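User: Study the fold:
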Amino acid sequence: MNDADTDTDATDRMLLQRMSMGDRAALAVLYRGYHGRLCRFLSRLTRRPDVIEEVINDCFWIAWQKADNFHGDSRVSTWIMGIAYRCGLKALRQHGDEPVAEDTLGQDRVPAHDPGEDRELRDWLGKGLGCLSVDQRVVVELVYGVGHSLDEVAAIMQCPVGTVKARLFHARVKLRNVLPSLAGESPIRKEGAP
């Protein structure tokens, strides 16, 4: 963990401590700080903005209720992502992931992580990620999008680190084969192969 991560975690811990004493302003600060990250993360589970917002609200309701149960065994971000992941899975079981009309998926409802990114590249990568299983998409997002370690992802997903490694390996293999075809090229071949 670098110095910025340590400072952020210390601030988050202080906010959780204040939340455990009933400080709603601390909850609001933590909510605003995590909302964008959670939107991006949860968009790997579902494309439905209504479900994403419901999950974020459920996540912070649980964080509010359980703030005094956080004992610092992990970073606060790992704890919150774990709650969001479990809430997301529960919401998918309840709502399914029935598609919604493309025009109802406005950019203002689920913002992109970096508005300056090349939209075409984001769309291309999004289509590639759409070819992965939910667990593979979540692992890719947590490791590469959010920056969690494999140990933290295992804690979030409540599975062994070996399972996380396997999901990440299979996701990379699938992306390596799928992304070129989505760009109109043939899959990557080893040198000398026909």
